């Protein structure tokens, strides 16, 4: 990234409203997500976190309120969008008759011309993606034969294989055991060091506090945005959860306990 492109935010959302059935899932949401950082969306169930991620991925139809990397989402071709934004959905349903390797290779689709075979670099990128989530040993297994946490790691590998500049991860720690959660956080941090912008929805507040910044949502609105290490952010988090949790400093990090 050049110094100039560095100044362009990764994501800009302007007064975005999304209605799902009778529910106003997002109400006039405005937000700027800086480039090359990890931002964690947190908030109670039903706050609108997944809907916001889906809207940014171009999946809800309300594209005119969103810019990605300085370009309006509206009018962006599907192919360009699929190269710029990689997506890991919450509780994704996967077809049972696909191998782990082939599933991760699907992440390379936006880079292929119609019906072309994967190239040597595509295979190399898939290998790297499998290695980075330690899923290479399952490469020949069918995805349906893996546990929930193992499937989650493979889906993360598919998102990594896109090599997109923006990574949208909806509850990426779902089903992962504590060491795998720690590895996932390291991976996210490492991606940002290489210029990637990562936006996650997370329920694990103690993990979310490792992000660069936090966006707090409730009832379809953004209530607060601030640095993860800032005590004001911590108070806003406690507030949105009705002060039923409390954030305490521990060494140079924080722990979250029921209050
Ligand atoms: N397909 C749908 N049809 C109607 N309403 C929906 C639909 N999907 C979500 N909603 C509603 O939209 C609101 C926002 O849902 P969303 O999934 O974005 O919340 P969330 O913050 O991701 O929640 P969670 O933490 O439980 O995953 C909720 O009130 C939800 O009930």
UniProtKB/TrEMBL annotation:
By its UniProt entry, which Gene3D superfamilies does this protein fall under?
P-loop containing nucleotide triphosphate hydrolases (3.40.50.300)
Give all residue intervals belonging to the ABC transporter domain: 11-244
The record's SUPFAM superfamilies line, in alphabetical order, gives: P-loop containing nucleoside triphosphate hydrolases
Q: Does the keyword Hydrolase apply?
A: no
| Signal sequence coordinates | none
Record's keyword annotation contains Mitochondrion: no
* GO terms for MF: ATP binding; ATP hydrolysis activity
What are the coiled-coil residue ranges?
none
Q: Which UniProt keywords apply?
A: ATP-binding, Cell membrane, Membrane, Nucleotide-binding, Transport
The record's annotation in InterPro entries points to:
AAA+_ATPase, ABC_transporter-like_ATP-bd, ABC_transporter-like_CS, P-loop_NTPase
Annotated PANTHER family: ABC TRANSPORTER ATP-BINDING PROTEIN, HEMIN IMPORT ATP-BINDING PROTEIN HMUV
Tell me the protein family, please. Belongs to the ABC transporter superfamily.
Q: What is this protein called?
A: Iron complex transport system ATP-binding protein
- Which species? Jezberella montanilacus
């Amino acid at each position: 990234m050049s110094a100039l492109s560095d100044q362009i935010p990764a994501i800009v959302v302007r007064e975005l409203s999304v209605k799902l059935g009778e529910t106003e899932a997002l109400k006039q949401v405005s937000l700027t997500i800086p480039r090359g950082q990890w931002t964690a969306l947190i908030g109670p169930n039903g706050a609108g976190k997944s809907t916001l991620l889906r809207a940014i991925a171009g999946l809800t139809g309300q594209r005119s309120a969103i810019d990605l990397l300085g370009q309006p989402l509206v009018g962006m071709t599907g192919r360009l969008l699929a190269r710029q934004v990689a997506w890991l959905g919450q509780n994704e349903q996967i077809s049972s008759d696909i191998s782990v390797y082939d599933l991760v290779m699907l992440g390379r689709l936006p880079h292929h011309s119609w019906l072309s075979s994967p190239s040597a670099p595509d295979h190399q990128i898939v290998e790297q993606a499998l290695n980075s989530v330690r899923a290479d040993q399952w490469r020949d297994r069918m995805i349906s034969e893996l546990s929930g946490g193992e499937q989650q790691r493979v889906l993360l590998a598919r998102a990594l294989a896109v090599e997109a500049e923006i990574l949208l991860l909806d509850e990426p720690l779902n089903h992962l055991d504590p060491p795998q959660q720690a590895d996932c956080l390291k991976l996210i941090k490492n991606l940002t060091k290489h210029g990637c912008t990562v936006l996650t929805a997370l329920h694990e507040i103690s993990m979310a506090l490792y992000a660069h910044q936090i966006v707090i949502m409730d009832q379809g609105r953004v209530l607060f945005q601030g640095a993860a290490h800032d005590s004001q952010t911590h108070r806003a988090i406690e507030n949105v959860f009705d002060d039923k949790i409390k954030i305490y400093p521990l060494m140079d990090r924080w722990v979250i306990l029921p209050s």
